[in-house]
Write a structure and sequence with these properties.
- This protein is α+β, with helices and mostly antiparallel strands.
- The chain has two domains: 228 residues, Rossmann fold, CATH 3.40.50; 120 residues, Beta Barrel (OB fold (Dihydrolipoamide Acetyltransferase, E2P)), CATH 2.40.50.
- It has eight helices and 21 strands.
- The chain has a six-stranded mixed β-sheet, with helices on both faces. A six-stranded mixed β-sheet has the order 13-12-11-15-21-14. A five-stranded antiparallel β-sheet has the order 16-20-17-18-19, with no helix packed on it.
- Strand 17 and strand 18 form a beta hairpin.
- Helix 2 packs across helix 3, helix 2 runs parallel beside helix 4 and helix 3 crosses helix 4.
- The relative contact order is 0.12.
- The N terminus is likely disordered.
- The chain binds adenosine-5'-diphosphate (ADP) and magnesium ion.
Length: 377
């Protein structure tokens, strides 16, 4: 498990970069009942960056976010936002904007009145309010909709009002808890790009919570993957995808095939077959291991010669061919290892008729693409 902000030179060049905006150390939440909702979570987030907390339902994402917002007092651990301990101020006094799945807009008020609300709460100079409301409605592309009532706006437009309302008082930190989860796929993908655009435009430090791996990869500078209340990995999206640190992360992002066996010098042995792979860290020969390989890193061909460049080439059979539109998903198994169903992408949908179910094929990959982890069970 990696602690703190990921290393690396690329990324945003916003002013304030390098300053730590959020600093969490060993944050733990124990609601009772045996397991910890959040278990010693530690991370730093630099000012101006977009962090996504990604994990399955029940992994502790909302609890972690609520502790950062100051809605939930941690059982133990420390947290600072902008250098200040979070529990020093009541939530409404903190400089934190929030958008949740339930938008909690005022349905009978206009879009502009909703956006003005946090400014009135914070006793902004009333003369400055209309201009600022207009600017933020423009930012979310609702410049012409200020007078519309919330219940006269579409779901996507309501999302935009909620974003404008969360940002209008220029908070230090924007917190998003699955605000897009209830939207249909097309609108959700559009709003993901909008969050990214707005965040880049304002440079506001953002923490987003989602269970949607695609959203995490699309919008984030940094991603924290959670499972069972623990941070599994903290990295940039490309690093997380390319170099998962454990089988959970490998399985949660992308489509992976797993093979259990025992470690050999150059990979693992399973069902009497030698599968080439790359050990993640030092693993003793003979130790129980789990290999993981992504669907786009496996090749199949009727002729083994065609896979001559691969480190492992083994005979197998096609079990299923699934048409997914922009690609095909083959399900195949190696002869001698029937319990492992390899899932293999093929990016030519016209190849649908290439193989019949049951057809013999060769299956190949390169050692660096099969990541081999010590078994934890
Ligand atoms: N107020 C609470 N009281 C008791 N248990 C809770 C409370 N809030 C969350 N939990 C438990 O903590 C765990 C993490 O929940 P949550 O943070 O909501 O996960 P996520 O947002 O990832 O779905 C779950 O097991 C959940 O049941
Ligand atoms: Mg949640």
């Amino acid at each position: 498990m990696k602690q703190g902000a990921p290393a690396g030179g690329s990324g945003s060049t916003d002013a304030g970069q390098g300053q730590v905006a959020v600093h969490a150390r060993d944050l733990t939440m124990d609601f009772g009942g045996g397991s910890l909702a959040v278990d010693r979570a530690s991370f730093d987030l630099e000012a101006g960056r977009f962090l996504t907390i990604l994990g399955p339902s029940g992994s502790g994402k909302t609890t972690l976010l609520r502790m950062i917002a100051g809605f939930q007092k941690p059982s133990s651990g420390q947290i600072t936002v902008g250098g200040h301990a979070v529990d020093a101020m009541p939530p409404h006094r903190r400089s934190v904007g929030m958008v949740f799945q339930r938008l909690a807009l005022f349905p009978h008020m206009s879009a502009a009145q909703n956006v003005a609300f946090p400014l009135k709460m914070r006793r902004f100079d009333p003369r400055g309010i209309p201009g600022r409301v207009r600017d933020f409605l423009d930012l979310v592309k609702l410049g012409d909709y200020g007078e519309r009532r919330i219940n006269e706006l579409s779901g996507g437009q309501q999302q935009r009002v909620a974003i404008a309302r969360a940002l209008v008082f220029e908070p230090e930190l924007l917190l998003l808890d699955e605000p897009l989860a209830a939207l249909d796929r097309k609108l959700r993908e559009e709003m993901q790009l909008e969050f990214r655009r707005i965040q880049h435009e304002l440079g506001v430090t953002t923490i987003n919570v989602t269970h949607d791996q695609r959203e995490a990869l699309v919008v984030s500078d940094d991603i924290i993957v959670m499972d069972g209340g623990r941070i599994q990995q903290h990295a940039r999206p490309t690093e997380l995808y390319r170099a998962p640190e454990n089988p959970f992360v490998a399985g949660f992002l992308g489509v992976s095939t797993f093979a259990d066996g025992e470690a050999t010098e150059r990979g693992l042995r399973a069902g009497g077959l030698e599968l080439s792979g790359l050990h993640a860290g030092a693993i003793a020969t003979g130790a129980p291991v789990r290999g993981a390989i992504r669907a786009e890193q496996i090749r199949i061909n009727a002729a083994p010669e065609a896979l001559a460049g691969c480190d492992t080439v083994l005979p197998g059979r096609i079990r299923d061919v699934i048409f997914e539109g922009e690609r095909l998903l083959y399900v195949a198994a190696l002869d001698g290892l029937p319990e492992v169903e390899f899932r293999i992408y093929h990016h030519d949908p016209d190849a649908f008729d290439l193989y019949d179910i049951g057809a013999p094929v060769s299956i190949g990959w390169n050692a660096r693409d099969m990541k081999i982890f010590k078994s934890t069970a």
